[in-house]
């Protein structure tokens, strides 16, 4: 990202502040900080004002921050909240927005000991982050490409005898070797009946013949996440598995077909749910159809029942219907997709046809 892009984002955030009659915004979440300033370190606070943006950090990060951000960098020797609070008092800043979901009560009290009036202002930056720039979409496309290549590179390892943890480690290793900073989230590898846990952690269980294997993985590339799930079968699956796989795939395709600018997030969820309900699998679809993603793996919007948010071109979301049956196992198919004016672009290049190994 160029400094110009960060300046454009700060300008958009300032407009949102003016609409809320705020003098400034206190930004504490690492993703929001990175979005507005470019700074990638783990300890900083950003005060965004109409005419300035000041980033407070500690001595470990002074050099890094000066190189990464066009904001004014101030190094604090103690608590960043104390330093920011003092600075706000000296500069007579009054109504400062903050996100109650991001700032602890203790930090809030610390800030309040200064003169600034803290005003709850949730989600200001998250709203902006929902719609991605072409540059951001390109980074997510690359991230999705890395995850897909890592998955393809591990196909020959998906065999009876390897453990779930070993397979997850191989996937993570390849994601990094292909140029990512790491996995976008804890890689899920589940096999057999464990696939009935939608968010299984890889275990010491050994993959066996005639089992379902579910892999949910993503790459983090230049700060941007991708997310994909594929479900494969070790051996020749019974008719029931094929039927359920087909139903999940049809639900995934129907939801992707429903995506375009102006459609509500709830309508996309409905499209997936309708297919699974028609197959008698409605109750087995226990989670939302998808979520936004970008600097974080879970961002707005949520693609769930009754969600009214209207999709906009530039949003990047997942489409991931799944079914989970206790004695049978689970099947999920997930792509990362970018919303366009007339539909969507599927950013995950991996085939969704049933793969039997
Ligand atoms: N793929 C992980 C998640 O969406 O929660
Ligand atoms: Mn997901």
Contiguous low-pLDDT stretches (5 residues minimum) are: none
Could you give the count of β-strands?
20
Structural class: alpha+beta
- How many helical elements? 10
CATH topology of the largest domain: Creatine Amidinohydrolase
CATH homology superfamily name of the largest domain: Creatinase/methionine aminopeptidase superfamily
Tell me about the largest β-sheet.
6 strands, mixed
Query: What percentage of the residues does DSSP assign to strands (E)?
Result: 15-25%
CATH A-level architecture of the largest domain: Alpha-Beta Complex
Global mean pLDDT:
96
Global geometry = elongated
Radius of gyration: 23 Å
Domain tally? 2
Q: Which sequence of SSEs, written as H and E, runs from N to C?
A: HEHEEHEHEHEHHHEEEEEEHHEEEEEEEE
Helix percent reads 25-40%
Distance between the termini: 41 Å
Small molecules bound: glycine, manganese (II) ion
**CATH C-level class of the largest domain:** Alpha Beta
- Across the major sheet, the strand order is 4-3-2-1-5-6
């Amino acid at each position: 990202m160029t400094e110009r892009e960060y300046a454009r984002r700060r300008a958009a955030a300032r407009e949102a502040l003016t609409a809320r009659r705020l003098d400034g915004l206190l930004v504490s979440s690492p993703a929001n900080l990175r979005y507005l300033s470019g700074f990638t370190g783990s300890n900083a606070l950003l005060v965004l004002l109409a005419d300035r943006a000041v980033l407070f950090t500690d001595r470990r990060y002074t050099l890094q921050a000066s190189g990464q951000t066009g904001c004014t960098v101030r190094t604090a020797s103690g608590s960043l909240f104390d330093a920011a609070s003092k600075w706000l008092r000296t500069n007579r800043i009054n109504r400062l927005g903050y996100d109650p979901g991001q700032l602890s009560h203790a930090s809030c009290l610390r800030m309040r000991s200064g003169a600034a009036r803290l005003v709850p202002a949730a989600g200001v930056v998250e709203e902006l982050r929902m719609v991605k720039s072409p540059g951001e979409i390109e980074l997510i496309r690359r991230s999705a490409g890395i995850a897909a290549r890592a998955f393809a590179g591990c196909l020959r390892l998906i065999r009876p005898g390897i453990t779930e943890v070993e397979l997850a480690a191989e996937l993570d290793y390849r994601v990094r070797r292909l140029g990512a900073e790491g996995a976008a989230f804890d890689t899920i590898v589940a096999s057999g009946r464990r696939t009935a846990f939608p968010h299984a952690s890889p275990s010491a269980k050994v993959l066996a013949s005639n089992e379902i294997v579910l892999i949910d993985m993503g790459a983090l590339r230049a700060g941007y996440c991708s997310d994909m799930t594929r479900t494969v079968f070790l051996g020749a699956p019974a008719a029931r598995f094929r039927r359920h796989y087909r139903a999940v795939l049809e639900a995934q395709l129907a939801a992707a077909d429903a995506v375009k600018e102006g459609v509500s997030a709830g309508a996309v969820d409905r499209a997936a749910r309708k297919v699974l309900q028609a197959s008698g699998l409605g109750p087995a679809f226990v989670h939302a159809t998808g979520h936004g993603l970008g600097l974080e793996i879970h961002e707005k919007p949520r693609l769930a029942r009754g969600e009214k948010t209207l999709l906009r071109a530039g949003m990047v979301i997942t489409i991931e219907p799944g079914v989970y049956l206790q004695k049978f196992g689970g099947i999920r198919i997930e792509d990362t997709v970018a919303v366009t004016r007339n539909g969507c672009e599927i950013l995950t290049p991996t085939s969704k046809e049933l793969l039997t190994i």
